[in-house]
Structures are given as C-alpha cells and as structure tokens.
C-alpha cells in the first residue's frame, strides 16, 4: 500500500537516511551556517536575505513576483536594498523600534515582502493579515496586539477603523495619490528618498519575530507569538522536507496572512537561498499550471483544497501545459486524501508529500520526506530529533492504532513562545509532563506513521483555513434578525469542510432565502469572505446547555445524522 521513493529525474535527497538522522541530529548543526553562531546575536531577515546578498548568490533571483498587472524579478541584492529602504521608511518616518508590532494588511506584492523584511530588520514583531479581512477582523487583531503601525493599501484603508485604535500611531499607505495627513504616510514617496543602508537591529534568538492570529473554538482569535529562533527549524525543514537545492525554483501558493505563506512562502526558502515564486492573482487552474510552466517550478507547496480543485478541473487541462520541471510536490493544512495522492501520481507522475503542522508549532513537524516510502492518507513521521506521540488526556502515551491526542514534546526550535496577552491560554496547551497538545486527534501505526483523524475541538477547517465558530457566531448575532446562532463545519468533498450556521430568529422576523443572503453578506462584509456561512438553516430554538452555551456537537450530530451522545447538560 505504500508508495516507494524513487529518485526523481536525477534528484538526490537532502535527507537520505531518516532513521539515522532522527537519532543523531542536533539543532546546533543547523545553526552553524548562520552568523549568529559566532556573534550570539541574530536577525532572521539578515540570514534570509543579506547573508546571500553578501555571498556569490548576490545576483541570483530571490523573488519572481507576478500577478495580473505585474511581472518582476528581484535578486538577493535587490531584496536587501529594498528591504533596507522599507526598513528606513519605518524607522525614519514612523519611528519603529525593537519590539513594536507592525501589521501588514495588503495583497501579495513585492512591497509586502520589502516591508515584512524591513520591519524584521528593525527588530519589530510583524503581523501579516489576510487581504480578505473586513473591519471587525482587522480591528480585533490590531487591538489585541496594540499594533503601533499598519502598512496597507489605499484600497483596503476603508476597512481600518483608525479612530478606534488608540495604539495605532501610523498607517503607511502603499498606493498612488496618498495624502500625508494625520496618521498617514505615503510609502512610495518615502521609499524614493530612503537610504539603502540600514543598521540591522541584532536581537536575541528569543526576541519576537511574528504574531500570527489564529482561531480556536472559543473566544476571539489568539495571537501566536514566534521568536527569531524559529528560523532554525524553517531552515532545516527547507532542506529535509522541501528538499530545496541551489537550482530549485520553489512556489508556495499560500498567502502570508496564513502562517504557511509567511514561514514557507518567504522565510524557509530564503533562509536556504532558494529562488522563490510568488504569484498574486486569484486561484484558477489555468493560471496555476501556467505559473508552473512559466517559471519552471521544481518544488511546489500547496493545499488539499487546491489539489482537489485542480483535480476537478480535469486531467485534460494538465496536458495543455508543460509541467515537466516539477520534481517535488507537498501539501499542508488539511487531510490529504489518498485519492488526491493517486491523482497526483497519475497526472504529474510524482507523489504528493503531506506535511502536518500548526500556527502554534511554527514549522513543519510531521512530514513525508522525499526519500521515504509514503502511505497515502498518512501525514508521515516527525522531523528528526522532534518527538511526537499519541497521548491520552493525562499525557500517557498510547500504543499503535489507538486514537488520541496528537502531542509533541516541548522544546522544538520553532515552538510558539506565548499567546499574546494570554498566559493562561498558552499554559493550557501543555500537559504537566511537557507534552504540547495539538487539538488534533490521530493514531500512529507500527511503523511510526501518523494518521490524522479530526479535530478534538469545534475548529472548522474550510479550504485549508482555520475558522473559529465563535467568531462567526459573534458576528451573526450582531445582525438584527438573529437571536442565536450556532456554527459548525460540515464535510464537503472539495473544501474539506464548509461553514454551516444554525440560526434562531428574533420575534417578528420571517425566515426567507433573501434573509439568508443578507445574513451571509453581513458576515462576509463584516468579518471575511471565507468566514461567511455557505449554508444557513433556520430553527425555532438551538440546543443549549443549562448555562446557555450552544451545543455545537449536537448541531453537528443532527446535521450528519449521528447519535447526539450525552445530553445530560442540555436545557429542557
Ligand atoms: C490541520 C496550518 C490534516 C490540523 C499550517 C491542524 C492538517 C490545523 C494538516 C492547523 C495535515 C494541518 N493533515 N490536518 N497535513 N496540516 N492540518 O494553524 O487540524 O492554520 O491543527 O496551520 O490544520 O492549522 P493552521
């Protein structure tokens, strides 16, 4: 049932011998290639860009960027210069200092990456936000992080409630016709005169790097805090898992608003000095295949929903493009169906390598390596030297084939270091014997492969994006007609899950299709398009506990025609 690893078009693998490396690897080996092993101080952006600009990789292409309007390329030297300039804009015009939170709310563009790297060079903590976020989502994140600076575009500015954000000191606008007044700074105007020389802020490896907000099953999104040290694991997994080499052209399809797009769409490939493709348009099968063909992409990292959509577009389409450059394909974010792996083998003659990790783990943890046998449907094995296990709620390890909590032993390099302003939440991830509990359930087989079973909580994974039901419910009840709302993930063949909302209306409101549409639009415009329920069902009442909490598991059981389980806490 496995799929043997065969050398792909002469490719040799960075991780040849998993078992030996697993036992012998020491993270200090990864650190040797960084300057901080000598100085003790570090800056991720220096290691990702400047280090290569100062080497014989100076004129190597670091970034191929394109979208429907632009088609550009930047060498490592260019990236160094532009990120220095952007850093100077943030430093001089805006006064960004070490530790300040700088949020970035814009569609993918070269400027986004200049700002991202420039802010990191100043020692700032960066927070990339999805361009699809609407006002409430933007406000929650800027408020919680007490962001000092936001970098955005003229088009998105309308979604930034500047007057409600007392900590926000400046808004840097990337766009044309920007008027510098109040908080507003004109990015392009400032870039013109900004110096290419920037004094890098050398920080401690435990100093802040990134804040990525992510959804849980309760409460508002939480700020997952990562430090510079995470780059050790980004660097090493870029080798072992992405298998990047000097002549690779790498394309990660994720947006930096999602942790994959930041860590594996920018940091990891650049830390190993790879050529990185960033494509800024909306998904379309033709566009994606064309992108692979145009750039001669060799290593491609995407997500199951995208693969399923490509699969749905038909195998005939694949033959219209020259995709022979492809050598290595990877997937992340949701369960990768065996069917998709088989499809990949058929149309690309390549295996699709599943990888498992989370915003909180900060980097890939359980993976299928190019050199090893793949069991379609399995997420693979832990990266060398990191311990993963299936444990019960007390942290006792369970034997093979027993389903339980997927857990990782505390101490891997890229582990989150805090939940912003929420020590209690952070602590709640760990058991007393130092297992980090992921919230996923899984089992392990006798060969040490991990098999994903589902989420333990109510978190919804729709098209690879993590949506907290609470956030959607909170938005729904702001709508005048909605008295109560319960939100679940409903299985969907393409998107993994879709968001379904059960709604009880207030007195005097009539259920109708128009009303459903209005409600959907309200969430879409208030929160984010991907958070808007695709299905809405009106109910007289919703199942609740005696304390008034909506019982999502009962809604889910109803939806899926499953037994509802223990209802002893349900109100009459
Ligand atoms: C899910 C994404 C099955 C899982 C990098 C996890 C997966 C959550 C896989 C994290 C996979 C991620 N197979 N499920 N290979 N990879 N997940 O933080 O439920 O957006 O807990 O990070 O995605 O989502 P997040």
TrEMBL record:
Residue ranges of domain AMP-binding enzyme C-terminal in the record: 471-549
PROSITE patterns: AMP_BINDING
SUPFAM superfamilies associated with the record: Acetyl-CoA synthetase-like
Signal sequence residues: none
Keyword Kinase belongs to the record: no
An individual GO BP term: acetyl-CoA biosynthetic process
Family the entry assigns: Belongs to the ATP-dependent AMP-binding enzyme family.
Protein name: acetate--CoA ligase
Organism of origin: Neobacillus rhizophilus
Taxon lineage: Bacteria, Bacillati, Bacillota, Bacilli, Bacillales
Gene: acsA
């Amino acid at each position: 049932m496995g799929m043997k690893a065969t050398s792909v078009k002469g490719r040799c693998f960075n991780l040849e011998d998993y078992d030996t490396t697993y036992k012998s690897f020491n993270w200090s080996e990864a650190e040797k290639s960084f300057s901080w092993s000598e100085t003790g101080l570090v800056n991720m952006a220096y290691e990702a860009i400047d280090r290569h600009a100062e080497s014989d990789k100076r004129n190597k292409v670091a970034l191929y960027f394109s979208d429907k309007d632009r088609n550009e390329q930047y060498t490592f030297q260019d990236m160094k210069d532009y990120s220095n300039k952007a850093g100077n804009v943030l430093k001089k015009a805006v006064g960004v200092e070490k530790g300040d939170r700088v949020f970035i709310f814009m569609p993918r563009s070269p400027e986004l990456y200049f700002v991202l790297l420039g802010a990191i060079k100043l020692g700032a903590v960066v927070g990339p936000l999805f361009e699809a976020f609407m006002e409430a989502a933007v406000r929650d994140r800027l408020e919680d992080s007490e962001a000092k600076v936001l970098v955005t575009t003229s088009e998105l500015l309308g979604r930034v409630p500047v007057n409600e954000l007392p900590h926000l000191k400046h808004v840097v606008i990337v766009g044309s016709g920007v008027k510098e007044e109040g908080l507003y700074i004109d990015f392009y105007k400032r870039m013109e005169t900004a110096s290419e020389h920037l004094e890098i802020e050398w920080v401690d490896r435990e100093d802040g790097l990134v804040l990525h907000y992510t959804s849980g099953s309760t409460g508002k999104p939480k700020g997952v805090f990562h430090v510079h040290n995470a780059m050790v694991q980004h660097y090493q997994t870029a080798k072992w898992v992405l298998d990047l080499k000097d002549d690779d052209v790498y394309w990660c399809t994720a947006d930096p608003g999602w942790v994959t797009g930041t860590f594996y769409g920018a940091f990891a490939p650049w830390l190993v000095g790879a050529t990185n493709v960033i494509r800024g348009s909306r998904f379309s099968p033709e566009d994606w295949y064309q992108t692979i063909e145009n750039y001669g992409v060799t290593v491609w990292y995407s997500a199951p929903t995208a693969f399923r959509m490509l699969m749905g577009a038909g195998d005939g389409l694949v033959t219209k493009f020259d995709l022979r450059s492809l050598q290595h394909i990877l997937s992340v974010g949701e369960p990768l169906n065996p069917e998709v792996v088989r499809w990949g083998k058929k149309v690309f003659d390549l295996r699709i390598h599943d990888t498992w990790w989370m915003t909180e783990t900060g980097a890939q943890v359980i993976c299928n390596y190019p050199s090893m046998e793949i069991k379609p449907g399995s997420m693979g094995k832990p990266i060398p030297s990191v311990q993963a296990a299936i444990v019960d709620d007390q942290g006792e390890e369970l034997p093979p084939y027993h389903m339980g909590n997927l857990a990782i032993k505390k101490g891997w390099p890229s582990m989150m270091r805090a939940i912003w302003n929420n020590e209690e939440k952070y602590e709640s991830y760990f058991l007393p014997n130092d297992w980090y509990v992921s919230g996923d359930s899984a089992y392990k087989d006798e060969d040490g492969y991990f098999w994903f079973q589902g989420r333990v909580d109510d978190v919804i994974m729709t098209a690879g994006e993590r949506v907290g039901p609470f956030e959607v419910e909170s938005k729904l009840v702001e709508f005048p007609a909605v008295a109560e709302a319960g939100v679940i993930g409903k299985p969907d063949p393409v998107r993994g899950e879709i968001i379904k909302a059960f709604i009880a209306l207030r007195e005097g409101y009539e259920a109708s299709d128009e009303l459903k549409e209005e409600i959907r639009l309200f969430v879409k415009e208030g929160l984010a398009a991907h958070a808007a329920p695709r299905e809405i069902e009106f109910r007289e009442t919703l199942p609740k506990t005696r304390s008034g909490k909506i019982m999502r598991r009962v809604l889910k059981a109803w939806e899926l025609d499953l037994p509802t389980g223990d209802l002893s806490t349900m109100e009459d």
